[in-house]
Design goal:
Distance between the termini: 25 Å
Helix content: 25-40%
Number of helices: 8
InterPro entries: IMPase, Inositol_monoP_metal-BS, Inositol_monophosphatase-like, Inositol_monophosphatase_CS
Radius of gyration: 17 Å
Catalytic activity: a myo-inositol phosphate + H2O = myo-inositol + phosphate
Order of helices and strands: HEEHEEEHEEEEEEHEHEHEHEH
CATH architecture of the largest domain: 2-Layer Sandwich
Keywords: Hydrolase, Magnesium, Metal-binding
Oligomer: single chain
Strand order of the largest sheet: 4-3-5-6-7-8-9-10
Organism: Komagataeibacter nataicola
Low-confidence stretches: 39-43
Enzyme class: hydrolase
Structural class: alpha+beta
Mean pLDDT: 93
């Protein structure tokens, strides 16, 4: 991995840390949702825009030749190296004063994810990875779960209002039929990071976007998890499905939910 990417990664860690402090300062108290809806159950808060603008400005100052893409403003700069940010992943949780949300910042070299940072400040956790250099949680190396029996596994599935309810129920039933324990936590980036660190054994979402997964894809690869070909299958330009799994149950889970890992 080039020194240019390692230099950017180290600088980005500081940028994300400061962005997390801003999000913490702006976080709402527990209670009813604080924000507006882009569509049913798809929340937007003032913090989403503020954090994205903060990261864009800082990265642009540090690396003006780099591209930048955010969930809220889209692609605002172009470059071979491109930063992809979800300013608040888990906005529905954040808007209600819950803890399971994060800032996700990935770096791509062309179409290849090469570095990622996922910071969940209310959980006190920072996931980091650089391609070829391993994956880490709070500085400690992480690996995907060693589980090999689906009946002992914990699988999370993300919910989206863009997916028909019947499809969600069908996939949940398939997970239950494996004997696995289902979960749904409201943050795709954290869920994928937890597959990387072995806290859970799989994550499925039927429609998810690049900004949700750009940082996590590097984590998963470096941690030894199996992942569906998100980028190859259209994830660079549109929301599509993703499946990530511990190697020992990957084939069984893939067959059960009908999502290829090849």
């Amino acid at each position: 991995m080039s020194q240019a990417i390692l230099t950017r990664f180290e600088a980005a860690r500081s940028v994300v840390r400061d962005a997390a402090a801003l999000a913490m300062k702006m976080r709402p108290a527990p209670g009813g949702p604080k924000g507006t809806q882009k569509s049913a159950q798809d929340w937007l808060t003032e913090t989403d825009g503020a954090v994205e603008a903060f990261i864009s400005e800082r990265i642009g100052t540090l690396f003006p030749e780099d591209g930048f893409q955010g969930e809220e403003e889209g692609r605002t700069r172009t470059g071979t190296l491109r930063w992809v940010v979800d300013p608040i992943d888990g906005t529905s949780n954040y808007a209600r004063g819950r803890n399971r949300w994060c800032i996700s910042l990935g770096l791509m070299d062309g179409d290849t994810p090469v570095a990622g940072i996922i910071e969940a400040p209310m959980l006190g956790e920072t996931y980091t990875a650089v391609k070829g250099h391993g994956a880490f949680l709070n500085g400690e190396r992480i690996h995907a779960s060693p589980v090999t029996d689906p009946a002992t596994s914990l699988i999370e599935m993300g919910w989206s209002n863009r997916v028909p309810p019947g499809v969600f129920q069908e996939k949940i039933d398939a997970i239950l039929n494996l004997g696995a324990m289902p979960r749904s936590g409201g943050s795709g980036a954290i869920a994928l990071a937890e597959v990387a660190c072995g806290r859970q054994d799989g994550y499925l979402e039927i429609r998810i976007n690049l900004w949700d997964v750009a940082a996590a894809l590097v984590l998963l690869e470096e941690a030894g998890a199996k992942v569906s070909p998100f980028l190859r299958d259209g994830g660079l330009e549109d929301g599509i499905h993703i499946l990530a799994a511990a190697p020992g149950i990957a084939d069984a889970l893939s067959q059960a939910v009908g999502v290829s890992l090849k």
